[in-house]
């Protein structure tokens, strides 16, 4: 064999090894390191924090603006603000991009009474297909039995002074013939499974409301999984807010990590 030819396999091996192993001079990119999965502790509750969520104690470039989770002042629960309204965080499902929340005001109430529609911020979230709406009829004159098919009274909401009553319905559509008897209607989102438990009377209305509902976050849609699958950690670059910042071991990247990406920050 020609001497040069005998060298080829070992040269290939050397090239392969140098591609696989970081050279001793290269450092792990600091944003990759500081965006490692983080356990946020609030009182007795723990939550795994990953993109797009931000918490105190972790750099902002690990999350996305608008997804800030805080610990309540009494250390009792984790909270998030959606359209300037406070919600308690019940669960985060990173696989399906779902966060389950409940209106903070309802948590400690024995008889929660949602007076307003839930408005979510569509620049950050979409509705979840695991949810459905219950329709609430608020401050109604007592309904005659003929109007009660599929409509149930929330007995704890009865107002003895005004004699006004609250009702809910799980079927679709608003009973227009109830409208003249009630002051307003409100849509209350809840999990399908919760709605089933409510229908089967395993839960009452207040308990169902306190189970919360889910919204799906939109940050990272279409690229964060590419970043993660390439070994990176999704993040945010305040200097280039719309770019798909992927923090890689070997440096900053857009959308996903490549071999040879180098630190430029
Ligand atoms: C909440 O927890 C923090 C950190 O453990 C502690 O410093 C603070 O005093 C606690 N606050 C209350 C109101 O318990
Ligand atoms: C529930 O009602 C809200 C407000 O009317 C609406 O935006 C949303 O799409 C409804 N959700 C479902 C699952 O029907
Ligand atoms: C009954 O309705 C009146 C008038 O809206 C209100 O001031 C009062 O707080 C209500 N009582 C209860 C128990 O909700
Ligand atoms: C229902 O609406 C009417 C008219 O807007 C108002 O006068 C009344 O106080 C309301 N009733 C209750 C119980 O809120
Ligand atoms: C809630 O939304 C429904 C339609 O989605 C609307 O008919 C109703 O008037 C709204 N209620 C309030 C209190 O704004």
UniProtKB/TrEMBL annotation:
Give the residues annotated as coiled coil.
none
Domain spans labelled Wall-associated receptor kinase galacturonan-binding: 35-103
Q: How does it sit in the membrane?
A: Single-pass membrane protein
Question: Where would you say this protein principally sits, based on its record?
Answer: membrane
What start and end residues bound the annotated signal peptide? Answer: 1-25
Q: Cite the Pfam families for this sequence.
A: GUB_WAK_bind (PF13947), WAK_assoc (PF14380)
Which keywords fit this entry according to its UniProt record?
Answer: Glycoprotein, Kinase, Receptor, Signal, Transferase
Molecular function GO terms recorded:
kinase activity; polysaccharide binding
Record's GO cellular component terms: membrane
Places the protein is found: Membrane
Domain Wall-associated receptor kinase C-terminal residue range list: 174-250
- Name of the protein in question: LEAF RUST 10 DISEASE-RESISTANCE LOCUS RECEPTOR-LIKE PROTEIN KINASE-like
């Amino acid at each position: 064999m020609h001497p040069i030819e005998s060298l080829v396999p070992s040269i290939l091996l050397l090239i392969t090894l140098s591609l696989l192993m970081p050279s001793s001079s290269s450092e792990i990119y600091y944003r990759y390191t500081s965006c490692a999965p983080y356990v946020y502790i609030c009182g007795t509750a723990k939550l795994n924090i990953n993109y797009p969520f931000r918490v105190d104690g972790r750099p902002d470039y690990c999350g996305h603006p608008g997804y800030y989770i805080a610990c309540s002042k009494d250390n009792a629960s984790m909270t998030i603000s959606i359209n300037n309204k406070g919600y308690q965080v019940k669960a985060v499902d990173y696989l399906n991009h779902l966060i389950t929340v409940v209106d903070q005001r309802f948590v400690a109430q024995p008889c929660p009474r949602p007076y307003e529609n839930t408005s979510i911020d569509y620049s950050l979230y979409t509705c979840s297909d695991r949810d459905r709406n219950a329709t609430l009829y608020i401050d109604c004159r007592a309904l005659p039995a003929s109007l009660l098919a599929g409509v149930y009274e929330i007995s704890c909401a009865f107002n003895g002074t005004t004699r006004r009553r609250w009702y809910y319905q799980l079927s679709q559509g608003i009973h227009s013939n109830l409208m003249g008897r009630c002051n307003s209607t409100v849509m209350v989102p809840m999990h399908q499974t919760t709605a089933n438990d409510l229908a089967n009377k395993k839960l009452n209305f207040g308990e169902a409301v306190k189970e919360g509902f889910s919204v799906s976050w939109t940050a990272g849609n279409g690229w964060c999984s590419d970043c993660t699958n390439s070994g990176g950690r999704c993040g945010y670059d305040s200097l280039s807010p719309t770019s798909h910042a992927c923090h890689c071991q070997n440096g900053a990247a857009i959308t996903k990590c490549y071999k040879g990406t180098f630190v430029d920050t």
